[in-house]
What we know:
Elements: E1 2-4, H1 11-15, E2 24-26, E3 29-34, E4 37-44, E5 47-52, H2 56-63, H3 69-76, H4 80-89, H5 99-109, H6 114-128, E6 131-132, E7 139-140, H7 145-149, H8 153-158, H9 164-176, H10 190-198, H11 205-215, H12 226-236, H13 244-255, H14 259-273
Antiparallel strand pairs: 1-5, 2-3, 3-4, 4-5, 6-7
Helix pairs in contact: 4-14, 5-6, 5-11, 10-11, 12-14
Amino acid sequence: MIVKTASPVLLRATLRGGQAFRWREHGDAFVGVLGDRPVLLREHPKGVEMEGAAPEATVREYLRLGDPYERDLEALAADPFLAQAITAYRGLRVLRQDPWECLVAFITSANNNVVRIEGLLDRLSLRAGDRVPSPWGTLRAFPGPEAVARLRETTLRSMGYGYRAPYLRETARRIAGGDLDLAALRTAPYPEAHAALLALPGVGPKVADCVCLFSLDKGEAFPVDVWIDRVVSEVYFGGAPLKPREVQAFARERWGARAGLAQQFLFHAARLQGIGAREGRRAPGSGEHREP
């Protein structure tokens, strides 16, 4: 089935570019699980080709195909550097993920790299997630907070979560117990949603911003990790050192509600073009997700 779109969708950059961690390549396509439904996605000249049991509406929502994408890009392209990045990576999207899965993924991401993040989430899903039969083998749904809360801290540590284990378990217990309704944060103002996430164990400013941007529709959220700090410093401030709050204040003033989309193009350009890898710095592409 072809999900028709008015604008291109760059699946590799979107699904494997640091927003989500459970999509796997299958030839020229990508296989994943949305909710409890298996799905295969492939780029198509008219949009996105999909196979599997996931409804079209679910795929459209996940890829945010109803957003005014071209209008947003036109506004961002007034920035000369972003104009180049948009030309190079047009079709890069911001996802609308399940908030719980996104939260766990970014708690897992702190001081970690993409390969380890993927491995940890795979082991968690294998241990506590439901089996999802598919034409591409047996997949796993992502375990809900109740399932994660039932795991012992020692079990999570044995899976490789280390110091994150108690944070993850306690956060799962709070969500399962109804202390915080993650889905309801979609309609809350950004500062309120961000503050609510910061109150959870293991959630710092960058993790909270990632969850706000990649699952809660907070377009003004601007996650700052080492790579974003460097690209903003080098492109806009001549390499001057900046604090994360200064980077965020600059981004929100410059791009407003489109700051999060701008962040994705900046992050992608930094990883693939080597911006921020000067003066002996570690090259982008290592996939590190670190709290600044």
